């Protein structure tokens, strides 16, 4: 999650380090439990592609919600309830 925050900061999504740190402690991010010693990307790799590659390694999803907040959370697993439809939703 720290590397994703750094990529977002470099891409200009966060104006400064404080915004990045606030994002890391928000409900928009769940800690991965992974530690990566060194990360690098080929020249020309976009920030979005870099985050996609990182998310693939740790089985997370990265997306922006409707309010424009970056979200970095684990992928749903088989058996995890994602949403429930009831009579009120039909």
Radius of gyration: 15 Å
Strand content: 5-15%
Give unreliable regions as ranges: none
The total tally of domains equals 1
Question: SSE order in H/E notation?
Answer: HHHEE
Gross geometry: globular
User: How many strands appear in the DSSP assignment?
Assistant: 2
Q: How would you classify the helix and strand content by structural class?
A: alpha+beta
Could you tell me how far the N terminus lies from the C terminus, measured between alpha carbons in angstroms?
37 Å
Average pLDDT for all residues? 89
Amount of helix: 25-40%
Number of discrete helical segments: 3
Strand order of the largest sheet: 1-2
Descriptive notes:
This protein is of the alpha+beta class. The protein has one domain (2-89). 32% of the residues lie in helices and 11% in strands. A two-stranded antiparallel ribbon has the order 1-2. α1 (2-10) packs antiparallel against α2 (17-24) and α1 packs antiparallel against α3 (47-58). It starts with a helix and ends in a 16-residue tail after the last strand. The model has no long low-confidence stretch (mean pLDDT 89).
How would you describe this structure in keywords?
single chain, 90 residues, 11% strand
Task: Give the arrangement of secondary structure elements.
Layout: H1 2-10, H2 17-24, H3 47-58, E1 60-64, E2 70-74
Antiparallel strand pairs: 1-2
Give a short overview:
With 90 residues, the protein is an alpha+beta fold. Helices cover 32% and strands 11% of the residues. Strands 1-2 form a two-stranded antiparallel sheet.
């Amino acid at each position: 999650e720290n590397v994703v925050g750094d990529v977002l900061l470099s891409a200009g999504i966060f104006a400064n380090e404080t915004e990045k740190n606030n994002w890391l402690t928000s409900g928009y991010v769940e800690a991965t439990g992974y530690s990566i010693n060194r990360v690098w990307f080929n020249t020309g790799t976009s920030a979005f592609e870099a985050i996609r590659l990182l998310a693939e390694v740790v089985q997370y999803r990265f997306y922006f919600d409707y309010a424009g907040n970056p979200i970095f959370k684990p992928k749903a697993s088989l058996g995890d309830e994602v949403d429930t439809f009831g009579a009120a939703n039909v």
